[in-house]
Design goal:
363 residues, mainly alpha, two-stranded parallel sheet
């Protein structure tokens, strides 16, 4: 970074930092990049309907056949793509109306995927507000995986054995994420931080029970018990793996922000996020999450516009001396594994940035 702040008082420096994002947003808005992209989203909805129709047809026609495991894999991929669309709706990317986006999220998340929109929104909003900040971002506060340096302190011998190898064990473990997401969705509906959504809690719960129970019933109705268990196992494993691998590269291995550090919005979102190179194919594979920097800066921007805005954001960050990180898909996972192993070994590396002291603003 090339910004010199030595001769600038903290109050004025903070105003300058705030102005940085305001200028960027004005530039992006002026080019029409925040407008809704209805053609893209209606096409996506249509594609999902065709995919579910084809999966249902294949499921019925194949009957009690081990070829059904391919159907289970296809269903898992389609469910993940559906979750991406639910993510877009929850961020108000699809419709202008907040109510329409909310109902779209309920349909996509609760009815089709079997995840609670309400639980996810509370959790995800906290993540967007303070990515990678200790004590504020729930995505780095997990029991099974240690994401924060020092998290392994006081661990038992068995836990230390696990943590030292957690980077290598991440990919097998993430196959269980599908089960965990269903469990957390139901459990999360009754947490205290969901109190403001009590009026919709039972609706969400009923939709989740209907979706999860309905799939299990359909599978055991058509398939023999052994094949039914195999079908559900493959579907959950592929779904968990795809979901986990889509979200993991975005922030893991990026700087961890201490509890007492306050950073302006532009730097808070850019410095803690990582983009994955790869063009339209990677955007389709990751549901637009490969443009993580742009998504965190403009969460309500339709995902299809992020490819257009990325060069603008990258050039602006270069101009302002803000590090803009992008890697290949393979490199992002290598960084993830190495970072998790380092944390598991007890290495301490809080917010590794030479200008950390300059970015520390008075709250």
């Amino acid at each position: 970074m090339s910004i010199s702040t030595a001769a600038v008082r903290p109050g004025e420096r903070q105003r300058n930092f705030v102005r940085d994002f305001t200028e960027l947003r004005k530039k992006v808005t002026a080019q029409g990049l925040m407008r809704r992209r209805y053609t893209f989203y209606w096409s996506a909805f249509g594609g999902l309907l065709l995919a579910y129709g084809a999966i249902a047809t294949a499921f019925v026609l194949l009957g009690d056949s081990w070829w059904q495991l391919l159907v289970a894999g296809a269903l898992a991929v389609t469910l993940t793509q559906t979750a991406f669309l639910g993510h877009d709706a929850a961020h108000m990317q699809i419709f202008r109306s907040g109510r329409k986006n909310e109902w779209a999220s309920l349909l996509l998340a609760n009815v089709l995927v079997g995840l609670s929109y309400g639980w996810w929104q509370v959790k995800h909003s906290k993540h967007h507000a303070q990515p990678n900040k200790v004590g504020a971002d729930p995505d780095i506060d997990m029991d099974v995986i240690a994401f924060v340096p020092g998290q392994t302190d006081g661990a038992s011998p068995l836990q230390r054995f696990w943590y030292k190898r957690q980077g290598y064990l991440f990919f097998p473990l993430v196959c269980l994420e599908g089960i965990n997401l269903h469990y957390q969705s139901i459990r999360g509906l009754f947490r205290k931080d969901q109190a403001g959504r009590a009026e919709r809690r039972w609706l969400e719960f009923a939709l989740l029970v209907l979706r999860i129970g309905g799939l299990v019933a359909a599978v055991f109705l058509v398939l023999s018990p052994g094949l039914a268990f195999a079908f559900l196992g493959v579907q959950l494993a592929v779904f968990g793996f795809y979901m986990g691998c889509s979200f993991a590269p975005n922030h893991k291995g990026m700087p961890i922000v201490p509890k007492d550090m306050s950073i302006d919005f532009l730097r808070r979102q850019v410095l803690m996020s990582r983009n994955i190179r790869g063009g339209w194919f990677m955007a389709a594979l990751y549901g637009g999450l490969n443009y993580q920097i742009e998504h965190h800066l403009f969460p309500s921007m339709p995902r299809i516009a992020m490819r257009e805005v990325a060069p603008i954001v990258k050039a602006y960050c270069l101009e302002k001396g803000v590090k803009y990180t992008e890697t290949s898909m393979g490199e992002s996972y290598r960084i993830l594994v190495e970072y998790l192993n380092k944390v598991g070994l007890g290495e301490r590396d809080p917010f590794d940035c030479p200008l950390a002291s300059q970015l520390r603003l008075s709250a």
